[in-house]
Amino acid sequence: MAKVSFLGLGVMGYPMAGHLAPKGHEVTVYNRTSSKAEAWAEQHGGKAAPTPREAAEGSEFVMCCVGNDNDLRSVVLGEEGALAGMASGTVFVDHTTASANVARELHAAAGARGIGFVDAPVSGGQAGAENGVLTVMCGGDEANYDRAAPVIDAYARMQRLLGGPGAGQLTKMVNQICIAGLVQGLAEGLNFAVKAGLDGAAVIDVISKGAAGSWQMENRYKTMLADEYDHGFAVEWMRKDLRICLEEAQKNKARLPVTALIDQFYGEVQDMGGNRWDTSSLMKRLTG
After folding, report:
1. Above 90 in pLDDT, residue 288?
2. How far apart are CA 194 and CA 242, in angstroms?
3. What average pLDDT does the segment 20-40 reach?
């Protein structure tokens, strides 16, 4: 069992950190809104710290899940950042979905202090975080990953080291590219079924058992047919992720024509007021 800090208590971080204490880890948390950190500590029996540096002091592992590259830099770097409070030989694990560039940047900054760094974005959504069954895609040095893996196990169903620094983030980009296409295809299929006068639920019951089946189909078709989107992974965050994918594709010359188009579709959903709707709201732009 280890002394662990967790930085960032949003819809993912709050439940992820909550799985650590029951596994026997001694946990200190930090959140930009301190009241949320205090509420977490009261609920789970850990400690709350006022800065990332103070949260990280004395910890063997510091886990983090914040919003974007700049949020990540703000809690890692600087006089009050986590690295300033970490000792040589400790490991920082970043669960933020961010760019591969920032992963490499922070890996270098941590390494200069003798601190390990693993980029480890997750997939599985809020439900996966709450149930402790996330998929974790990791990049970094094998020795640091091997040390951190037992801690990550507290909220992971699947985890794997996929390469050096940035490989976890690149793999998460593949994940989001695939999801974008799946959700658009599902939205078009369901809309077609309804327009054709079919029972959408009955159609899904049949085709989900065949080659068309997917997690999105199983978990989102009911709410899509019911025109309900006040749940799940927000459109604004998906657009942030797709922007990262498209920027990386410009560097590595990968062609992402469908991804670019679906990013535009999500922009239309935002124009409809759907900034915080679930990503399955691509259906909404078809049905109005």
Report:
1. no
2. 29
3. 97
pLDDT digits (tens, 9 = 90+) for 89-118: 999 999 999 999 999 999 999 999 999 999
Name the packing angle between helices 200-207 and 167-195 (round to 10°).
Answer: 130
pTM of this prediction? 0.95
| CA distance from start to end of the chain | 52
Domain at 3-163, CATH class? alpha beta
For the 170-287 domain, the top CATH level (class) is mainly alpha
d(C-alpha 10, C-alpha 101), whole Å: 23
Is 172 noted as a catalytic residue in this protein? yes
Could you say which of 172, 222, 251, 284 is catalytic? 172
Q: What pLDDT score does 85 carry?
A: 98
Label the pairing between strands 61-64 and 156-161: unpaired
Q: What's the pLDDT band for 220 if we cut at 50, 70, 90? A: very high
Distances (CA, A) of 144 to 28, 68, 131, 267: 21, 23, 26, 39
Please classify residue 227 by burial: count the beta carbons closer than 10 Å to its beta carbon, then call 0-12 exposed, 13-18 middle and 19+ buried: exposed
